[in-house]
Design goal:
Strand content: 15-25%
Largest sheet: 5 strands, antiparallel
Number of helices: 15
Number of domains: 2
Length: 477
């Protein structure tokens, strides 16, 4: 049976060589500062196929959710133009500041909890950058350019080969399609279809958004690529505050693997050799071009490709799997890890409190929002005989799923006469309508100002009494 002879490992691709600047450079840069193109070898294993299933579920959700409706509303819609946010049939408005704040806080706390438990599971399994890069664009690249060695050979040739020009054309088409789906999340599929059926001149803003988004996506997936994770994404930089020694990470078992050495036919029973044969399969398969054997690194996105690559090698040399595996720093160091710790207890408590408050406030939202505004012109006018007229603008936003008719009533009517051109006021579902009311008062009925209420009733359980101050001669404005 072949054994191994220890051998000094070759420098990892990102290590500094002689004459280079002191300190470590980025894994995507050469020693002279030029771009190092990362051409990872695909490692198909148990984690790869699990991630594949998750990735295509997420892609199907991204493409399909804009077409799904709940209560005649999109499942998810960020309607920036009308300043409305629809989430599973519930519509949130800019006035729902507290609800939106609680929702965002719930999301952030959940991310903190998942990171504390499972490390960068979002980066490796759920991030759109990873999902589309590794399961859409890289497979297409392998289809045109071949495996890692063939891609490196094309890099050495330089220039633009016909294969790559065709590949970039496919990338461009995909970028346009993804950009259109992305826009559907903000304007809805019906509006998107309407825009697509017309000339771009009719909708220059929408066309500009799609064009710019398409260009950015093409640049990202065709050129910028893993640098989005290594250079731009802030999550890698804040993970140090979110991880602890017991957080689950992808790690190399140094105690088991070292000292590493190459396979040889010579049997040296008196030599104590680790399980790592320094094949560098874990390095060649890494999409951010790091060597996982150097320990936890900012560039690691926990994609598990190094686990699949190493497990395949361990199977071939008849060694146990798990030289690279999901584990924690504490377990690697001491053999013992803790699941329950302070932050893992506090995060769920905080999530329960915030999510509970969100659920309570969301379930007790009023069925309509009523807003009263003063007239745009003068606060009041004086007519013949000293009659004072106040112009009142009443805005009602119907949050319900059906059209409502709101009956309006002025209280009290002492010495007042009011004119409401639309009463009851009909408001379509999930829309806002503004009407103007004129309130006339006889001479002397208003001494400076007078407090009134406008009573609103939809006949289906919603009522509101909105206060308002009528102004007259001598009022302090």
């Amino acid at each position: 049976m072949p054994s191994v002879v220890p051998e000094a490992p070759a420098p990892a691709p990102h290590d500094n060589g002689p004459g280079s600047a002191p300190g470590r450079v980025l894994s995507t840069l050469n020693e002279d500062g030029t771009r190092r193109w990362v051409r990872p070898e695909l490692a198909r294993g148990r984690f790869y196929y699990r991630r594949l299933a998750v990735a295509w579920f997420l892609i199907a959700s991204f493409v399909g959710l804009p077409f799904l409706h709940v209560n005649n509303k999109p499942v998810f819609l960020l309607d920036v133009l009308h300043r409305r946010f629809t989430f599973f049939g519930a519509t949130f408005l800019p006035t729902d500041t507290v609800l939106l704040m609680l929702l965002m806080l719930t999301i952030f706390l959940t991310i903190f909890l998942l990171t504390a438990l499972f490390g960068r599971v979002w980066c490796g399994w759920g991030c759109p950058q990873t999902v589309y890069m590794e399961y859409v664009f890289r497979p297409i690249e392998r289809l045109f350019d071949g495996n890692r060695n063939k891609q490196l050979a094309l890099d050495d040739k330089g220039g633009f080969q016909p294969k790559r020009l065709l590949k970039f054309a496919v990338f461009g088409i995909l970028s346009i399609l993804v950009a259109n789906v992305f826009l559907a999340w903000f304007i809805g599929v019906d509006e998107l279809g309407h825009w697509m059926s017309q000339s771009p001149v009719e909708h220059p803003a929408g066309f500009s958004i799609v064009f710019i988004t398409s260009v950015l996506m093409f640049i990202d997936f065709a050129w910028f690529r893993e640098q989005m994770c290594v250079v731009v994404c802030p999550y890698a930089r804040i993970q140090a505050a979110l991880l602890d020694k017991d957080s689950l990470i992808v790690a190399y078992d140094n105690n088991r693997g070292e000292p590493r050495g190459k396979l040889t036919k010579v049997k040296l029973d008196d030599l104590k050799i680790g399980d790592c044969i320094d094949c560098k399969a874990c390095v060649y398969t890494c999409p951010t071009n790091i060597d996982i054997r150097e320990g936890l690194q900012m560039e690691c996105i926990s994609c598990t490709q190094c686990i699949d690559a190493c497990d395949t090698v361990m199977d071939k040399i008849k060694k146990p799997r798990g030289l690279i595996r999901y584990t924690s720093q504490a377990k690697l160091a001491t053999g013992v890890g803790k699941v329950l710790r302070l932050r893992v207890i506090l995060y769920p408590i905080a999530i329960a409190i915030v999510a509970g408050a969100l659920g309570y406030l969301a379930s007790h939202r009023v069925a309509a929002e009523v807003t009263i505004l003063r007239g745009i012109a003068a606060p009041f006018t004086e007519g013949e005989g000293g009659v004072v007229t106040n112009q009142v603008r009443l805005k009602i936003h119907n949050r319900g799923d059906d059209a409502r008719s709101y009956k309006l009533e002025l209280r009290p009517l002492d010495g007042l006469k009011w004119i409401a051109p639309e009463n009851p006021l009909r408001v379509p579902a999930d829309h806002a309508v503004t009407t103007t009311i004129f309130v006339e008062s006889q001479p002397g009925a208003i001494q400076g100002e007078k407090s009134i209420e406008i009573h609103v009733d939809d006949g289906k359980g919603f009522t509101a009494d909105v206060p308002f101050r009528l102004l007259g001669p001598g009022a302090k404005q």
